[in-house]
């Protein structure tokens, strides 16, 4: 690795990936009376549906196994047994915690020397992403069925879109011309999620038992390396944030930030619409 590549790696790691949890020594154990909506036995139909829903041609992780290989019926049967074993024991392969980060320049006019101008695309193993997809499917269904997420959050939710919020905001501006709105884009929002706080939020929302243990296991001792000019750097620890490239991450982030909505609503500010007051709109980490 040449000096410029090594310097970029050090800067990218220190400025983007090395934020540490302020609660990293806190151990939070799952509840014993586990939520049956989330913790029932995995069915092979669940796994089959997720595998056939995965798109072909996606980049592989460190194991180089693509989705195409996993779609054979004989492999699906093996994966079902593997996933059920992992679900019961909460012991996952260490390779599932490894990510190859490919920095992509956000804007071609940006300073290429600044790591903050890059978006890190993480390549995870396809098998680990399928297991995360199983967890995400159950958690998302549970959240929606029980109305756990704030109605003001439209990010990564079925039958909701950013356009819905744009329509709402336009209607407010037309009817209340003196409306003042603040637009907030949280810097590196997914990267700076405190994992212990996230685990605590999961328990508060009765996301417990085996599903909780699985999520916790995924985030223990996570490591990554950076791919630069077809060269992989040394592996390093990632102590905070939800994993980029994992479809479970947006759901976890929505849970993490969900309390913000009530905090803002408690200020009793915003625009009156009928008998209610609208004071905040969210699309994942984009906030008005």
Automatic annotation (TrEMBL):
Family matches, as Pfam families: RVT_1
All residue ranges annotated as the Reverse transcriptase domain in the record: 85-288
UniProt cross-references to InterPro entries, sorted A to Z: DNA/RNA_pol_sf (IPR043502), RT_dom (IPR000477)
CDD domains associated with the record: RT_nLTR_like
Coiled coil (residue ranges): none
PANTHER family per UniProt: REVERSE TRANSCRIPTASES
Protein name: Reverse transcriptase domain-containing protein
